[in-house]
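A student in our group prepared the protein record below, which I am reviewing. I have pasted the whole thing underneath without changing anything:
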Amino acid sequence: MHLSGPIFVAIEGPTGVGKTTLAQRLATRLGFQLMLDPFEHNPYLSDLYNEGAIARSSLAVKVELTFLALRVAQLHDIADLLAANTPVVADWGLIKQPLFAADTLPPAVADRVASTCAMWAPILPAPDWLVAMSAPVPILRQRIRGRERDMEQGIPDNDLLALADRFEKAFSVYPYPLIRRSAATFDSLRDIDLDALADELRGGIRAATRDHGGDARRDGPTMPASTDHRPQQNRGGRGAPSARRPG
């Protein structure tokens, strides 16, 4: 059964966890509008992977600020869809922006990106439900190889592990409704798994609708503004592209 109304579901997790595949299938199953992370529209992304370590530092600022602009713009599009009573499922959430910025930028610059996200968050649509995906590094590596994006193939395993750890920390303090799934046991291409997730979302949305007098939406920022998810050290080093992009 399809749901209607201004409902926003986002899917997040580390590179290779299967966000886009799940979003595509879940949107079809629920009858929601699909919105995909606009990472392919970032003109600096391929340069970040192709240039050396010296160039990477300056390019990273362009990459992160461009991503932020693209994502804020898409969240405005999502707000318009929700205002038109169209439910949305997206393969990303604003929660990812400070996590990746912390990996690519110097700490002071990453802090400014995080502060900018916190400034925008209260006036942008926040997911009513976040599907938090995780996976062991061997599964992430297998899926990255399988989708054959050249820019991702050189990501070191320790970078994948560091990124997965950052997402786990962010998920652990996420203050709004969250559904956990691990790619070690969940397969979005398996109908029984997809149906179970869709049913869980339908049940949660119906309960929220009852609690809010017919409106499943809630107000609030996408992420806690004061939470710092920067790693204490960059375990991936500077010699190879990080697991940061694309998400």
The beta strands are 8-12, 33-35, 88-90, 129-134, 178-182.
